[in-house]
Design a protein that fits this description.
Elements (H helix, E strand, L loop, with lengths): L1 H13 L2 E2 L18 E2 L6 H7 L2 H9 L1 H27 L8 H42 L6 E7 L2 E7 L1
Antiparallel strand pairs: 1-2, 3-4
Helix pairs in contact: 4-5
């Protein structure tokens, strides 16, 4: 099977070269020269798909489940990284004797607890859903590396293309 595959690969690589008649500059049509020109094969639609950023590929394949996981992840990060510190600075008002500052401090403590209490579970569940999606993508669609090995076998020396 591997020999047939090797022959097919060599034929595919050599298929881009072809011979054609060549007309000389002095108009002599009988001049037969071998002209070898490489054939250009442009990128296919799948090549454009694999050139897209990973987020766009995942969104194209998994659709709403990917968007839901991404929004959970970013909402959790936003609550923990942006909102919680704002409320935490507001909670410093607890240490003042003024009633308005103390009330603002209580609101800050409640806001910090609420944003962390909602942000951490969103962050964790979004990350888990993204991990499941990325693992499935890697198992099904990611390009596989191949290697060529040369080594001893029971009959002598062996050449293997593993993919």
């Amino acid at each position: 099977m591997k020999k047939l595959l090797l022959i097919a690969v060599l034929l595919a690589l050599s298929g881009g070269l072809y011979a054609q008649n060549y007309r000389s500059a002095d108009g002599d049509n009988d001049a037969q020269r071998l002209y070898i020109a490489p054939q250009y094969y442009g990128p296919t639609e799948m090549d454009y798909f694999y050139m897209m950023p990973l987020e766009e590929r995942l969104s194209a394949i998994y659709g709403s489940s990917y968007r839901k996981a991404a929004s959970k992840l970013w909402a959790g990060r936003g609550l923990c990284i942006l909102v919680a510190p704002i409320f935490a600075t507001m909670s410093l008002g607890v240490f003042f004797d003024d009633e308005v500052m103390a009330a603002m401090g209580v609101v800050g403590l409640l806001g910090t607890a609420g944003s962390l209490g909602a942000g951490i579970p969103l962050w964790v569940s979004g990350r888990r859903e993204m991990d499941v999606i990325i693992d499935d993508y890697s198992r099904r669609y990611a390009p596989r590396p191949f290697n060529v090995t040369l080594g001893p076998t029971s009959n002598g020396l062996g050449f293997a293309l593993n993919f």
